[in-house]
Amino acid sequence: MLFRNRFLLLLALAALLAFVSLSLQFFHLIPVSTAKNGVSSKSRKRIMPDPVTEPPVTDPVYEALLYCNIPSVAERSMEGHAPHHFKLVSVHVFIRHGDRYPLYVIPKTKRPEIDCTLVANRKPYHPKLEAFISHMSKGSGASFESPLNSLPLYPNHPLCEMGELTQTGVVQHLQNGQLLRDIYLKKHKLLPNDWSADQLYLETTGKSRTLQSGLALLYGFLPDFDWKKIYFRHQPSALFCSGSCYCPVRNQYLEKEQRRQYLLRLKNSQLEKTYGEMAKIVDVPTKQLRAANPIDSMLCHLCHNVSFPCTRNGCVDMEHFKVIKTHQIEDERERREKKLYLGYSLLGAHPILNQTIGRMQRATEGRKEELFALYSAHDVTLSPVLSALGLSEARFPRFAARLIFELWQDREKPNEHSVRILYNGVDVTFHTSFCQDHHKRSPKPMCPFENLVRFVKRDMFVALGGSSTNYDDACHREGF
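Request: output the structure for the sequence above.
Response:
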């Protein structure tokens, strides 16, 4: 009996050791013998994918919800982070407008019912919303550059008009402004308490959604600001190119990029099938439905949790949405690979980047004007800037996206200045093409300002190829 018990105990121990050994091999905690060529001596079927080499398939609904940027808890951000011996000198903020009503409607369907009046106790909520409404109502006599002075200062229609900023869009930028206030004003004292009008630079396109987004961010940043100190300049071009907008080569890059998009769409049989199904539902030709850009309206339904439209022929549904959104994601991926958009971006973004480094250079000389610059813009503004900077992996600008350039001075070496680039609160400085290798050669936590200057003044043209050394030559070079 005793012998049998000992035998059973030894058998159990052996089984336990075998199990532990197999487990350790499974989790790669002990090595598995390999052949000389590096292949496993036994051909094993992989049970679990390696998350490093096999990333999960992109989820189109997840990507769309990131794009919506639905306000929730305050996000963590890396703005304003620097060693104690660095002093913040100036900040330059590029934003995309907040959540808006669609620019297009799906033909023969009812428009999504979104209320564009601002209601302080309605979700999404912000503690400064009621005060913002009150302050905007006092700004009717504000002096803005024409035609901005004819635009409403906040959204106010019970049923949103096409392209109108929503309450969600206002709250998104109130949050952005408050976040920047906590960092740049309360922590770093970028502006004095008695700040003056010439210490701000404010510019927006002539759309109500960009002006209102800029005002919402500004109110979060400078609550109850003095209207007499506020002056928004009007920018006619979405590229913010001011007097440097004529650029034939840039337009040629854009035409080739649009041709690439067209050919990619033709190859996507599932996309064409989906457009065909949706066209039958709304009883219009497929070409008409496609021209109506249905994804724009569908995103509004998704962001505001409104059901997709139905007709007597059926309903537009989530599967249709997934196919179109997946194609958008594939288009962005191919766009990065083909590089045509990069050429467009380098020329499209140069004027605004050149203006920005000009303001930074003046700040390095000790001048106190335009310490805080705000450009209230569009996705078609931010996207070329991100691409030109080499941030190829950056997501397409979501609603209320923010791209920030920080200029810092080393107190221990006052003549040395550095920059940080942040996208939606993430420090992407060392992902930019002009500073991606700097941290490998230097222990300094920021990028030398001269790197950015050299990139804008010279390297952007080098990246285009050819012999151009300035913007005008690059825009008009022959033989492209």
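Residues 66-243+342-476 form a domain with the Rossmann fold fold (CATH 3.40.50.1240).
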